[in-house]
Amino acid sequence: SQQGEEDPQALSIQEGENATMNCSYKTSINNLQWYRQNSGRGLVHLILIRSNEREKHSGRLRVTLDTSKKSSSLLITASRAADTASYFCATNFGNEKLTFGTGTRLTIIP
Amino acid sequence: DAGITQSPRYKITETGRQVTLMCHQTWSHSYMFWYRQDLGHGLRLIYYSAAADITDKGEVPDGYVVSRSKTENFPLTLESATRSQTSVYFCASRDRLNYGYTFGSGTRLTVV
Questions:
Q1: List of chain A residues whose C-beta atoms are within 8 Å of the C-beta of residue B51
Q2: Is A95 helix (H, G, I), strand (E, B) or coil?
Q3: Which of A80, A96, B31, B36 could form a disulfide with B87 if both were Cys (CB 3.0 to 4.6 A apart)?
């Protein structure tokens, strides 16, 4: 069963707007990661946030983590057409494995 | 070429046939993984390996076999393909120090 569940399942916004995606998980984690998948391609690692961190930035990406609510959010600022993709959160429990959610499909309208 | 390479990119096979999907990485990453991606299920872990000659089951291992005789290769074999194994298969790797995975481009397998 999926550990992480993304919300919403699909999101369409105008270019230049900010996009926010949420991820909820069920059990304690070691870290949480976000990945992007362009259509027909493999997943690309975007950012990792550890369980003792609350916020992390990377370029136009901002990730927050609330371990008390078992949730995370990914914010993409000033969206571009090239950001159109599916975004997945993945949780790690301190072992080798990642468990992925079902993803949010983001469409940026030019 | 440096990176992680999957082959073939596309494969059509018949029910009951054995098929092997290949995965090769050039970084000498310790960990390698096989996932399948299906609509509505996201990515599900089939098998993973922590090092050469060390493999372990993931969430959906039934009907699949893996081996890892060399660090750089991690083939996935469907012993007797079934239609339910029609999917996109992704190989991934990571090293011991970094938790982020690097994924291959995937193999789209159709079982008819």
A1: none
A2: coil
A3: B36
